[in-house]
Every structure is written in structure tokens, then in C-alpha cells.
Amino acid sequence: MRWVFRLLGLVVVLIALAVGALFLLPAERIAQLAARQFEAATGRQLTIDGKVTPTFWPVLGARVEGVTLANVAGAQGGPMLVADSVDLGVDLSALWGGSVVVRRFEARHPQIVLERDANGQGNWVFSGLGATPDTTVSDSGAGVLPPIALDRAQIEGASLRFIDHQAGTDVTVQGVTLDLSMPEAGGAATLTINVANNGQEAAVRATVGSVEQLLAGQVVPVTASIEASGAQGSFDGRMGVQPVAAEGRITLDIRQLAPLLELAGAGGAEVLPDAARPLTLGGQFTLAPAGSIHLRDGSLGVGVNRLAVALDTTFDGPRPHVSGTISADSLDLSGFTTGGGGGGSGASAPSGGGWPTDRIDASALGIADAQIGLTLGPVNTGYGTLDRLRGSLTIDRARGVLTLADVRGFEGAASGELVANNRNGLSVGGTLSVQGVSLLSALRQSLGFERLSGTADASLQFLGVGNSVDAIMRSLEGRGQISFGRGEILGFDLSTMLRNLDPSAIGAGNSTIYDSIGASFT
């Protein structure tokens, strides 16, 4: 948002060209004067290589060709702005009165580069723009740009590149159309941005309470919304730009990710499983002046599930760090485990059977570090229901650990941890400990089997290495043990069958009672 209004200073200089052209001054002289004025006011070089042609209809103005705005010193993305032509129209009577009323501003197919350095400073920060107008001129000759009112500014077919050296990202979006209106100088403004790329479209609409106050470093009301194929979102709050900060209520509703990926140039199959749709997010959002992001009173929707979320994200380390808590009164994961998770690109097994050999992309483990506490009520896994789960998720340098501190289910308890490590190739492992689980309850829910009663204790350690399920399963190693306490096998009386060779000991009403059963493996 900030760079849009900072570039209004460029509009002022180009207006000078329009007025000069109306009086038939030489284009070369106009260009030199305008460039010097802009550089004195902003510290940024402006080059005009083309013609300055006056226009008289539908408003007084001019067409300026070959406009180039220099980037900040040390930037790597080339000029900040390159435009083949810019059409301008002004209110001449207002201009004589010392103010600028832009009736028309149109730039066609410009190339815009927005770049933020490693310290978080953006190239859209201009000296001399947004200051309170003054009739004086400094000793250095740098004037202050007059107030601007803007009926309408349009940019069509732009190429927008955003380089963030702090985050290590470089994104280019083609087919950007921008429509900006600020009827009163420094007053409220409305902005619409439309993006069309790879057959997909998105629209962003925003309103700013006061541009003058925003550029002067004050916090002003801001509303924004975004609509795209399969997704929509909104922000209603306030923001400032010196330093950049914002707070307000956000909403997000995603029903398909494939169109968004296609729009961003990273097309492919739908990666959001059916059971995860819609993916929604709402809550109180804060962007702190230090650059950290905070979410409070958050509600995350994943399909039929609703989770309470409180998260903090900082960017002062080698990777973003996410910390916070996630909780839910209940969770239904059956859609992911019983065939309802389709929609993404699943791994394929060889035609002759066996484990899937598709390569597992675990690069997401290296995107950010995390420390998140988990508190969940009843969890329907699709194979049975856990009464509760207390644990945490930790990610450190591409190594993720899911700690199960206290899991209750099937009348027993479990604890342990599951590890996925992608630091030097992918490996998965873990340790699990189970105490006092009801065999009848566990087998009935998971397998529909009701012929074994008693309690079970078990422990398991395992490790697998490889970049596919097939490789992991073939390399799997570990050890474990299981023991059954006093219980009963329903459906046959083993002692009667062995003593009397009586086949009638099989069937309803027969059972085999045991004191204990144990086994171990490596």
C-alpha cells in the first residue's frame, strides 16, 4: 500500500511536464527541469528519454514517453519503474492556485520493481514525499511537492516484481492492473488491484482513511479484501507505515489452492485434500513494528474441524519462528484416514503391488522453526477415538518432533514421540509406550474384532530412512515388546478342545481364559 502513495510524487513531476507542454516549451528542457526537481525533492534520479506531447481532450495534459525511475543505491533489481508512456490530465485552474488535481493518470505496461533490503528498508520510501507542504525552499534547493488530489490513476498490464532480501524471496507477477482514487489532497483513498495470470484472476480492494496522515507516520483506518478463484479474505483495522505496523480483524476462506498456485505461476494438481476444505482462518491480527506477526482469538477451520489458535511469528533468526498453542474441543480426522482425503496428488504404488515409490517432498520442514503446544479433546482417528491428547510440535532446523505427553484412549494411556528429520535426507522414527489399554475396546473400534478382552502394555522403537515410503519400509528397524494381562479369548475353549478333542467347544458361549501373554521382537 505504501509504495502506491509514495509514487504519487512521480505524478507531480510528470504534471509539470504536462503544463510545460501546454505552453509549447521544448520537451528536452521540460524533461531536464522535471528530472532535477524530482531528484532534489526525493533523492531519486528520474530519466525522461522520450517525447512530451500535449493533449487537450478530454482534459488538458500530456503524454510522456520513455520514463525511468532509478532504484535505491545498492538495489539489485534494476530501475524501480520503467514505462513506455504515461498519459496525464490536470485541472489547470487548481494548478494555478498552488494545488494539483489530477483528472487522469494512465500508465501502460510499466515494469515495477519493489525491493526490500536485508534491514527491512523498502525502495518505496522516498525522502521529501508525504511531508507537510511548505512554501519555503531549503538552502539546497530541494522543494517540497505540493498537495495532490487524484480523481483516478490507472496502471494497465504491469509487471510487478517484489524482491525481499530479508525473507529471501523473489516473486514476479504479470498482468497487474491498478486503479487508485484520492479525490481530496491527502484524504481518503481507494485502491483496486486486479491480477490476471495463467488463466486465473484475483482482485484486491482497499480503502485508506487518510493518505496524508499515513505518510506522516500516523496510524489510520484501513480495510482490504481479496477475491480469487476458490479463495477470499478480508482485513478491517488500522495501519501505519513509519514504521510499518497493522492491527485488525482478518478472515480467510480457501476452498481450492490449485487456482492460487496457478495464478502465482506454480501450477499443479490440487494439494488441499477434500477433508481439509474449506480451510478458514479468522482472528485478531497484529503486525508489530519490529516485523513480528501475532494472531489472537484465532479460529482455524479444517473441513468440519474447528481449532482455537494463538500464534506468534518472529523473523529475527535464520528462519521464521512460530510459537503458540492450538486446541480443540474435538477433532474428526476420519476424512483423512478412511478415503475422504482425496483431492491432492497421492503417492502411487507399483502396478505389481508393494509400497509407494513416489519421492516424498519434506522440504516444508525447513521453511520455519516452531514450538507449538497441542491440547485436543476427543480425536476420531478413523480407526478409533482417543479421549484426549496433550503434546507439542517442535521443528528445529528441518527436524520435526511430535511429542505425545499424555494420550488417553481405549481405557488406557500412551506417551512417546514421533520424529521426521530432513536435515541430511529424510528419516522417520519414534518411541511409543502404551499402558493399560483395553483390548476389547481397541480392537472393536479399529478392526471390528470383539473376541479378545483384557489389558495390554506395549513399547516400540523404530527408525526408517529414505525418500519414499518404499525406501523407508525396506530400511525399517527397531524393537518392541507387548504383554497382555489377565483376559479372555471369546469363541472357543482351548483347554476343553485339547483335553477332550471336543469340536463343540467352538462357538458362542465358549472362551479361553489366560493369565498373561507376552512377546518381543527386534
How is this structure best described in words?
The protein is an alpha+beta fold and 522 residues long. Among the domains are: 1-132 and 145-185, no CATH class; 487-521, no CATH class. It has helices at residues 2-6, 8-22, 27-42, 92-96, 211-215, 258-263, 334-337, 439-447, 469-475, 494-500; strands spanning 46-48, 52-55, 61-69, 81-90, 100-108, 111-116, 148-164, 169-182, 189-197, 200-208, 220-228, 231-241, 244-254, 279-287, 293-302, 305-314, 321-328, 331-332, 369-376, 379-380, 385-396, 399-409, 412-421, 427-438, 452-453, 455-465, 477-484, 487-492, 506-514, 517-521. Helix 2 (8-22) runs antiparallel to helix 3. The model is unreliable at 130-144 (pLDDT under 50).
Provide the helix percentage.
Answer: 10-25%
Q: Give the structural class.
A: alpha+beta
Strand content: over 45%
**Which stretches are low in confidence, meaning pLDDT under 50 for 5 or more residues running?**
130-144
The number of helical segments is 10
Main β sheet profile: 27 strands, mixed
Q: Which outline best applies?
A: elongated
Span between N and C termini?
Answer: 61 Å
